[in-house]
């Protein structure tokens, strides 16, 4: 029963991580304009994401513009997009695979070994999904940090980490942790020994002696 609780906990954590990866991918706040320096502009806040750039006025009005052409984007941004989309698709596959192997589901009850393998396989896919998202967010964050500390970057064009990056880091960690719990929920197979055969009882003596 303990393995069943660990399995359920792992599935919930991995599912929450997958939802967080979707939210992080859709958010435009992957990096926000930094106002450190002499020229401080408080009239608007600038954000850039994987799909669009947004400007929020001091009145609270937000204006967003989708990137015009895919070919005009930087190769690193396209790679980040691809990794996040791959993480979402892998998480979707892992979701169906892990549900099939859950002990609380009626599917594949006649073969418990295959059912446990499905849960472990789903956990492995969740781990790969979380790693893909972690690589994408860390790579993007590294680029933002390098541009921020680059002395040749103008002060008014420097960016800082956005909230989407922090959500992506937390979500990828949950997906990896949940997938690990799913992999660890498979109980160890105990060595089974063949049942010992009892020796046949001696036939009852008939009172006749043979020479």
UniProtKB/TrEMBL annotation:
It is found in: Cell junction, Tight junction; Cell membrane. This is Claudin. GO terms for molecular function: structural molecule activity. Belongs to the claudin family. GO terms for cellular component: bicellular tight junction; plasma membrane. It is a multi-pass membrane protein. Pfam families: PMP22_Claudin. PANTHER family: CLAUDIN. The gene is Cldn1. The keyword Membrane applies. Keywords: Cell junction, Cell membrane, Membrane, Tight junction, Transmembrane, Transmembrane helix. The lineage of its organism: Eukaryota, Metazoa, Chordata, Craniata, Vertebrata. The chain crosses the membrane at residues 7-27, 79-99, 119-141, 161-184. Claudins function as major constituents of the tight junction complexes that regulate the permeability of epithelia.
